[in-house]
Amino acid sequence: MLFAWLFRRNRSMPVTTTVPVLPAGVWPILPAAQLLQPHTPLITHIHKLCGVPDDYWRTLYQPLLDNFAAFVQQTPASEAHHHCAQGGMLTHSLQVMKLALESRKGKMLPPGAAAEDVNKQQHAWTFAIASAALLHDVGKPCSDQKLRLFNANGQDTHTYWQPLQGALQSGYYQVQFVRDRQYRTHELLPPLLARQLTPDAALSWLQQDFPSVFKAWLGYLSGQDEVAGVLGQIVTEADRQSVADDLSGSRPIHTQQIPTAKAKPLSQRLLTGLRHLLDEQLLTLNRPGAAGFFDGDSLWLVSKRVLDELRNHLEKEGQTGIPSRNDRLMDELQQHGILTPTVAGQAIWNATVKAGTMEQSFTLLRIPANTLWADPAQFPKELEGTVTPNAKDGEAKVSKSPAPAPTQAAPVPTNQTVVPEAAPAPTANASTDAEQDAAASTSPWGDDDDLLPPTIQPSTPEPSTPVAPASQQAVPVAAHKPATTTNTVPATKVHLPEATGNPDSDDTGERFLHWLSEGLRTGQHPVNTTEAFLHTVKEGVLLVSPRAFKLFAPDNWDYVQKRFTKLKLHKPAPNDSNIWLYHVRGEKKSGMVRGFLISDPLETLGVAYLPTPNKSLSLPNNLNGNPP
């Protein structure tokens, strides 16, 4: 009896599992449900934004989320930049997914299509945008990081995860960052990994029923912006917003880094280097020829000189990864709230400095003194004079608290005709022409409906109940309704012709024409905005030269322009030149813009309609002769 009692007692005692003692930064491999659980409110919001019934969610979206979470585990999105904390990759990707879907709610896709086509393709576009947003950085755990594996007992196996063989299964892992990595390799991997993570039902649905959406989706994952079109614009902007939100947060980047991270954030290195140059008086202050001026609250630094000296100092110290362009350095300082922006959100201030007999205008960077020195006793001597910013930049004095991160410059309203090349770019941080074009492009297509997706053929049976109208579904977050514009899709059905040009032609002119046509049809190329290279005029469409050709082929643009000229799709100017001159009139500036005039743009560019002419452009008779 005693032995039987002991046997029963021992059998009923709970079995305790011993968690092995693990080195710093070694984490358990977790199931998808456990990884996603902290993000439940965000995923619920994403579900509402998608606007699909539960059956479709379970077939299309939930498997994608599960596969992605199991694949990335708790890896960070970077070592010393945005979302560098444990689990940062999953957090960032879900945020980009949410932001992209919110942006998608204000757009009718594809741009320029008839209403019935927009309704038919609506949910295909929604899934394509959502999945592209989720997968945009999925290559990072494969190229920028390597995961060292530990077994269930916490013992180092001295092996590394092979991502192309599938997700981690059991045990533990440690994130290590690849040194001397091939930069931007992670951008080449999403198409390969998308096949591994995207449900078969979703791939078949897109590829068979919506080939144009599938093409844009593949184009974005492959890094082909000209193919991705508006889908790429939406996801790229959402990515930038997520990065900016994280970098402008209250927690400094270096306090979030995982234990195995060795790189110091660039923003911290820039701040430390600048403090050293000032403390050692390698940057002089408050005199003629100085590198900066201190007004008691802010340090005003001569922009180009200081950034060049800062870069040289860091490179002499042997530091790597320092951007060679000053606009990149300004971006880094501004993203982290180190710089005080102008009222327009720009990094560069235009100001006049008066000190003694000196009175001189400068382009300056402005940094609160307590951002550089915690103790006011360390502040430099105050300038015996004044620093007066231009009226458009803001007031001279600010509080001594660190400036908040700048808000993103508002996009140009689409109901407003914009002067080409006459207005300043939306931010002072110089960017590439392509980035400026993407920032200037706005969606003129208005709101879409919450119609349910067309019938798909998933692995699970179709819902037997009839599809409910959108008004009976859960209401997603209110969509932003842009102002009515001249670019609005016509109420009547229009026939959209085929894109012109030939992307596979040996003729560069034909390839350029196809790029031009596709970009206009998909909304990738902005029209009548400040940075646009396409402007509608009374005589047709003005193709700004050489800007358009430089965007297509920066190193060979003149040859592309010659080949396009050979196609004879433009109207020669009356003075026997191929180039027309148009007068640009803005509120404060006027000037000239030149380019090719396409007098029959609908047929030449393969579009069904165009916006009304840009009122800021006119054809001066004295330069071109009589109008066509």
From TrEMBL:
Signal peptide location: none
InterPro entries hit by this protein: HD/PDEase_dom, ICE_relaxase_PFGI-1, TraI_2_C, Unchr_helicase_relaxase_TraI, WH-like_DNA-bd_sf, WH_DNA-bd_sf
Name recorded for this polypeptide: TraI domain-containing protein
Region described as Disordered: 384-508
Ranges annotated as biased composition (Low complexity): 406-433, 467-479
Membrane-spanning residues: none
Domain HD/PDEase: 85-253
